[in-house]
Amino acid sequence: MDKKLDDALRNALMPRDEADLRLNRKIVNHAKAQRAMTQREITQRTMTAKRTGKLTAVASAAAVVLCVSSITVYAAWRYLSSSEVAGSAGDISLAEAFAGEQALLINETQSCGDYRITLLGIVSGEALSAYPHEHNGSIAGDRTYAVIAVENGNGMAMPDVSQEAYGKTELSRNLSSGDTGKERSVCEPVCADKPELFASPLIGGYNPALYNLAGMAGNYTDITEDGVLYRLIECDNVEIFADHDLYLCVTEGTFYNREAYRYDKATGEISRNEEYEGLNALFALPVDASKADPGKAAEYIAALGFESDYLTEKLYAELDDSFEVKAGEGNPYGAEAAEYALQFVGNPYAWGEESLTQGTDSSGFTKSVYAHFGVSLPHDTTGQREIGTEVETVESAQPGDLIFYETPAHAAIYLGEGMVVHAMPEMGVCISEADFDEIAEIRRIVDGCED
Amino acid sequence: MTKQELEVCIDKYNKDIYSFCLYLTGSPQEADDLYQDTFLTAVECKEKIEFGNNPKSYLLSIALRIWKNRKRKYAWRRRIADIQPIAEERDAEMAKSAEPSPEERIARQEKDMSVRMAVNKLPDKLKIVVLLFYMEDLSTAQIAETVKIPAGTVLSRLHRARRILKKELEDVLNG
Question: A394 and A426, same structural domain?
């Protein structure tokens, strides 16, 4: 009987009720406010004379509190909501949109290396923001907005956007958590340097290297609150592509990182590159497929004009059997360099690399080819474009001249007769017609630049 | 309590504390208030919570203290509020969880319901001890510490509560 009663009581009284997300978030926010107030009182008491600039001190003092203990807990309620982030960014109208019915609350977290990335929410529509994006002089009204929260898994606070460390170096700095035995009641204000992050919607079936935030008139705003970096991104409305798979990628860097993801041209599927060592979060966006508007989507794609950026026929070119590299004037290694470069056709492309046989990117290719002749070039197209002398037109270009393209930045070696050899993503080292893309600049490597 | 400790506590003891508040106050609105005030009071406390000890009983003791102070205020509001809806809500939720058969499930729900009603009818002194013992799984020593009464008193209150409940629930338990 007593056992029966005990069991019945335990069963009936088992704690099943819980406080909802909203209530917990309210408590955390209240606690934050309380703390800020106490901190302010202390500051005012101790520094009665000087009050200037103390607000930032209060803010960083509050941020420091976060990294005291090694206890880690990750739950969506500890983050600001996407609506609150929009509000903090000063966009009340967007904050309302994020709180409205058309917004998707996702709250999905992915851990990647040291990072913990949470996709909080997404909303798309016409005229949602109080600050409409201006693109090429016209107002882009139909937009998609998404908010992610980025945290460093090793417990370091993300730097305040107003702090100096912001945007300077990459985050993946490992702090040894060290002295575990001791309790540190007061913690040094160690803050991670703010990483360069790239977060963007991607569309299945459309090459992510082109169709990403940068290509789709995108923009972002960063907010740091309590050691968490919130990024509000916006770009042209991707909901019209809802009949495709929609994704949101987050990587380090300022641009889309081809190495971090795989794009299957045949199926259109975009996936994480499991071998990639670094941050490569990828969320699926659960957008209602009925929101798709194929007509509008086709129009949009045509308007973007990426498809015509690379003239496919010109990109996939071959040299005639009779083709010969002819030596030009004033370009000491030109013909030799072009001839030398040709032997690597068919070798793989690899972003950031510069091996002619194992993989190289376009500027790595030009750099390594010229290195063979004792000419040292920097490994970036911007730097390379400062070397040598400028050649006005492709008609006056000679073999070995470097041809540069923009958006995306790209470099090729001129072969003569309107042809180039270059390292092209997804194609490897290949032959193309020089005007497969709009030529931005032609440079001749002359004697003077030999080191 | 630091903010991080607060977050850990919310994450870990959400159900324990909230359920306790709900049974103590008998209404979701009051439970929300009490739950929030409990955590905020804990944050204000300068003294460090010993995480080796039981932070749950610490939080429960705060909840109890606040509730005792406000009981009168809560009490008159309680007369207006209806306890019934909470139980119904919870039972609807429970109905969703997988159970052997519909009949068994209903029988069990009815039994749980009767037990909760019986607990609710207990005088506060006894109810608190019962909740801490059966709901929160505290030892009698921990209860003594939390409620700040001698351990012997805890035992005698538990005993009295059991006797009342046994009598009240005789049919339910044997049926």
Answer: yes
